[in-house]
């Protein structure tokens, strides 16, 4: 394992230094192993590991390439791990979201344009006052995804997207067991939107914090 870790580190360094760029094809296995001072077996294991993380793309009959390294692609591994979450891990995911999402919402308040605000309003209008739980959760995911996108930081948006998927079951569970959850969620979404429309970053951040804290507090109390 230590030898494989060394091989992974050397390939990573080639990518970080720019010796290998997104879309580049890696040298032949024998040549690369000799260049890096590695055994072909350790190099092969390193390539397998990095392909699982979507850093490398192994194409049968064609060779091995550096992937696009786009954040959504690299964060698929995070989403995969979170798909197997237990309830305590869902709570951790929500707490991380509680750190990142208010910051994203504050940034969005400074950068969001009028069309994006109208689209958010239309999203909430389509939901109505008495949506099903499935409709509410789907709308909630889309609402926050659009706000994160408006922050102007693609990596932050991708991180939140990866984390949010792990909290869906908790949101559905809350909607079933907490009588006021639906009305409260709708009200908090409107408050966030009003703050965004007013370009009030501090208020938008505060409402996003309250919105997620309510879910965290509920889940913490029932675990």
From TrEMBL:
UniProt keywords, alphabetically: DNA-binding, Transcription, Transcription regulation
All copies of domain HTH gntR-type, residue ranges: 1-69
Gene3D superfamilies for this protein: GntR ligand-binding domain-like, Winged helix-like DNA-binding domain superfamily/Winged helix DNA-binding domain
PANTHER family from the UniProt entry: TRANSCRIPTIONAL REGULATOR, GNTR FAMILY, UXU OPERON TRANSCRIPTIONAL REGULATOR
Protein name: FCD domain-containing protein
Organism: Streptomyces anulatus
């Amino acid at each position: 394992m230590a030898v494989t870790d060394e091989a992974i580190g050397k390939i990573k360094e080639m990518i970080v230094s720019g010796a290998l760029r997104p879309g580049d094809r890696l040298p032949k296995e024998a040549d690369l192993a000799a260049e890096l001072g590695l055994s072909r077996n350790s190099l092969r294991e390193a390539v397998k590991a990095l392909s699982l993380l979507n850093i490398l793309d192994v194409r049968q009959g064609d060779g091995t390439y550096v992937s696009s390294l786009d954040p959504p692609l690299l964060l698929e591994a995070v989403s995969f791990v979170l798909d197997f979450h237990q309830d305590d891990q869902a709570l951790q995911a929500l707490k991380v979201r509680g750190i990142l999402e208010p910051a994203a919402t504050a940034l969005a308040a400074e950068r969001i344009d009028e069309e994006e605000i109208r689209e958010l309003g239309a999203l909430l209008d389509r939901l109505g006052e008495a949506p099903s739980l499935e409709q509410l959760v789907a709308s909630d995911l889309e609402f926050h995804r659009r706000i994160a996108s408006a922050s102007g930081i693609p990596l932050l948006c991708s991180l939140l997207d990866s984390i949010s998927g792990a909290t869906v079951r908790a949101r559905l569970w809350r909607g079933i067991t907490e009588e006021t959850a639906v009305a409260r969620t709708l009200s908090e979404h409107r408050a966030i939107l009003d703050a965004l429309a007013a370009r009030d970053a501090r208020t938008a951040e505060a409402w996003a914090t309250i919105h997620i804290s309510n879910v965290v507090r509920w889940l913490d109390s029932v675990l």
